[in-house]
Design a protein that fits this description.
There is one protein chain. With about 290 residues, this protein is of the alpha/beta class. It has a single domain, classed as Metallo-dependent phosphatases (Purple Acid Phosphatase, chain A, domain 2, 4-Layer Sandwich). The protein is about 35% helix and about 15% strand. It has ten helices and 13 strands. It has helices at about 15-25, 45-60, 70-75, 90-95, 100-105, 135-150, 150-160, 175-185, 205-215, 285-290; strands spanning about 5, 30-35, 60-65, 115, 120, 190, 195-200, 220, 235-240, 250, 250-255, 265-270, 275-280. It is globular and about 45 Å long.
């Protein structure tokens, strides 16, 4: 069985990734890299990150799930540019000779990965508390289908984005159902017992939960903290939430340790339950840091 290293959000920090791989003494023939999504955007070397991860995956040395910034690239490529930001660093990818091949590969990546032998599941943002693992796997497969279809650009451009579908019910159908599933896997931080999502809160729970109490919005909490969470017996690895820091609790592991923001880049060695981290220099201007997602 290969060593498995789960690596937090890259967001275009390619030099730091190479430094981390040197620290863990990455050997493709006996190691496997799991990337938690958000391979690109806002960092200075998004193209290099995307090419590297694609090459490693194609060679059978790595796996990745889709994150919200990866979806952002798919949308911009498909012509949906109204969400473009001054902090985006997607242009080198869009101008690259291999852009079509990179995007075609990216859109076919999964929303959830389960280790074939060990108790470990990886998603980008989380799994709603009312979903069992078998349900989460089925819903992920359901939402992956339109991304892999020939008309995927129409789906991404016209149907994917929106904050209206925040509440889950198994009776959801059509595009609202697919939107909720993707929002949960790629964007979720806080929700209530029924899986209703809150997209506004992005900070550390110690701060955000106080704000919720002030607004009398009881019932919302980090998705992983519900005591009756259906996946509480499954070890879940996720990224997306840099303000959490290196959380290991509730049978979950947060791997986005804020490399882009001058924090760390993390590799979690699954077989030894050990974190290996390197320090990173800030890659995004401080005036933009308040808008981190």
């Amino acid at each position: 069985m290969k060593n498995t290293y789960i690596i937090g959000d890259l967001q275009g920090c390619f030099d730091e990734l190479q430094q981390l791989l040197q620290v863990i003494e990455y050997r493709p023939e006996q190691d496997e890299l799991w990337f938690v999504g958000d391979l690109i955007n806002r960092g200075p070397q998004s193209l290099e990150c995307l090419r590297f991860v694609k090459e490693q995956c194609k060679a059978g040395h790595a796996k990745t799930v889709l994150g919200n910034h990866d979806f952002h690239l798919l949308a911009v490529y498909a012509g949906l540019d109204r969400f473009l930001s001054e902090s985006d660093t997607l242009e080198p990818i869009l101008r690259a000779d291999d852009c079509d091949a990179l995007v075609d590969w990216l859109r076919q990546q999964p929303l959830l990965i389960q280790h074939p032998q060990l108790d470990a599941v990886m998603v980008h943002a989380g799994i709603p508390p009312q979903w069992s693992l078998s349900q989460a796997k089925a819903y992920a497969a359901e939402a992956e289908q339109p991304l892999r279809a020939d008309n995927w650009q129409t789906f991404v451009r016209d149907e994917l984005f929106g904050n209206d579908d925040k509440k889950w019910t198994p009776k959801l159908s059509g595009w609202p159902r697919i939107r909720y599933i993707i929002n949960a896997f790629a964007r979720m931080r806080y929700c209530d017992q029924n899986g209703t999502l809150d997209f506004k809160l992005k900070g550390n729970p110690a701060h955000d939960l106080a704000r919720l109490a002030e607004k009398k919005r009881q019932g919302f909490q980090p998705w992983y903290t519900f005591g009756d969470r259906a996946t509480r017996d499954t070890q879940i690895f996720f990224g997306h939430w840099s303000t959490l820091g290196p959380l290991d609790g509730f049978n979950v592991h947060a791997t986005d340790t804020g490399c882009l923001w001058g924090g760390q880049l993390t590799a979690y060695h699954l077989q030894s339950n050990r974190r290996i981290c390197i320090e990173c220099t800030q890659k995004l201007a401080p005036k933009l840091a308040k808008n981190q997602t």
